[in-house]
Amino acid sequence: MVGADWPAATGRCFAISLAIKTENLSKIYSHDATGRPVGLVDLSLEVEEGQVFGLLGPNGSGKTTTLKLLLGLIFPTAGKGEIFGHPLGSNAYKERIGFLPEGPYFYEHLNGIELLSFYGSLFGMGGGRLAARVEELLHLVGMWDRRFIRVRDYSRGMRQRIGAAQAMINDPDLLFLDELTSGLDPIGAMEMHKLILELRDQGKTVFLCSHLLKDMEPLCDRVIILNRGQMCETGAVRDLLRVENQYRLAVSNFSDDLSRRLVALAQRTEPEEGLLAAYFADQNAALSAAQEASAAGAVIEELGTHHRTLEEVFIEAVGGEE
Questions:
Q1: Would residue 210 count as lying in a domain?
Q2: Do residues 240 and 223 make contact, with C-beta atoms less than 8 angstroms apart?
Q3: Which of 20, 110, 176, 206 has the most CB within a 10 Å radius?
Q4: Are residues 40 and 167 both part of a single domain?
C-alpha cells in the first residue's frame, strides 16, 4: 500500500499500489577532488506492484548503494523511502522480500536440499511444507537432479540457480535480483528470463540489477539509469525505445535504381546484411516509399515506428563517459 503521507498517483480512476517508493533518497560516502558527492544523490522512484523494474548504470553509478538502502542494510544520509508502505529498514517488510546478491556465498558443505531447508528454517518453515517448497524450487531452477551435490562442487551457473531458489524460499512478494544471469549459459539465461516473466504473471514484483542490457530490454516494464550517483533517465521501456517522428522501412531484393531513389526520399538510409533500411520523419512518406519499393519488385521486410535498443538509450543517457 502507498504510505499515508504520500498520496497515490493521480490521473487514473484507481489507486496504484506501490511496492517501492523513494523521495530524494541519498547516501553520501565522501566527495571527490572536484567536490562532487560520491554515493547516491536525490533518488526518487516508484515501482508498482507486479512490475519488472530494471536498475541500470555503469560501474560506480550507485546501483549497489541503492540495493543496500532498499534492503535496509545501510541507512540514508538524506531523503526517505518505503517498501510496501513501511519505512526503509523496517522489519515489517522483510518477510515479504527475497534477495539474490551478485556472487552469493553459501555454506560449502551443504547440498541443495540442505541449503534450501536451512534458509526456509530462518523463516520459521518446517516439516512437510518446507520439504514440498524445497522440491518445488529445485525443479523450478533446474537443480532437482543435482540436489545431492555439495555446494563446494557447484559451477558458477549452479550457484546462480540455487541462489535464485533461496531468494524465493519464502514465496516473497518482492524479489531483488542482482546479476541473475551471471555465469549462466544461453539456455540457463533463457530459463531464468522465463522464470521472471512467470513471477510477474503471478503478481510478484521483480527488481532487477544488471549490466546485460540485451537481457533487460525484453524483461523490464520500466527502468532507471544511474550515472555517478544520480538518475539520468527513467521511464517505461516501450517509451524509452520509441523514436519520436521517425519511421523505418527495410527492404530486400532491391535494385541499385531503387536504392538511389530511397536515398533521395528518406532522411537517411543504412545497409543492413542484405537489407536497405530507410528512415522517414513522416508516416505518409514512409508508406509512399514502401509502395514505390513494392512496385519496383523489392520485398518489404519491415515498416513501422523506429525503435532504439536499450543499449543506445543507455549510452545516450550516460553521455559516453564510461
A1: yes
A2: yes
A3: 206
A4: yes
